[in-house]
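User: My collaborator sent over this chain with a note saying "see what the structure looks like." That's all I know about it. Can you take a look?
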Amino acid sequence: MNKCLPSFPNYRLGPIDGSLSDSLGIDNIPVAEFRYDQDTMNYRSIDFTNLSWYEPEEFWWDWGDGSQPYYTTVWDTSIIHTYAKDGIYEVCLRAKNKNGESTKCKKINIGTTATKDGADNPLIDIALSPNPMREILIIQVNDYLPEKMIMNLYDLHGNKIITKRLYEGSNIINTESLSSGVYIVEIIERNRIVKSEKIVKI
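Assistant: Without extra context I'll predict from the sequence alone. Here is the result:
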């Protein structure tokens, strides 16, 4: 039996302008898109990935911190930008070709724990699921790049069972070895408890 890796088409290519298959004469206007990931060693160092499509030829990155925008004609898969201080920044990518251009902007929150009405708990969107849990617990940190967020899991006697560092996005905690019962999940950022919730293991 002949084994080989599957080949998946790139559905975002569109017609190649001027080619025989471009029978409709539609000019591709590029669509700007990107994602970002946090460096695990330096929380202010962000790795940006260009996901633009429809044959873009030029790119402008605006990091939102007042630094010089970055211009390139190379479709960079990884661009690292390090911010000097914590804050909320609007990052924009402009993609352009001879037919037109588009811009995509996203706000990134780096280590900023704003509070509402002077409340003690910072406004960070954190969700725990499933509850009750079986083999895994998923801790979702949304739209926030932590400085050093720590999850502690305690039993009802106050014994610390699991400690894990958390990052933006989905954090998977293996709970298969835990006995059935009720546990307390406590999440700490910047020496403050940002979430505390009971969770059941079945």
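A starting point for your reply to your collaborator: The domain at 125-201 is CATH 2.60.40.3080 (Immunoglobulin-like).
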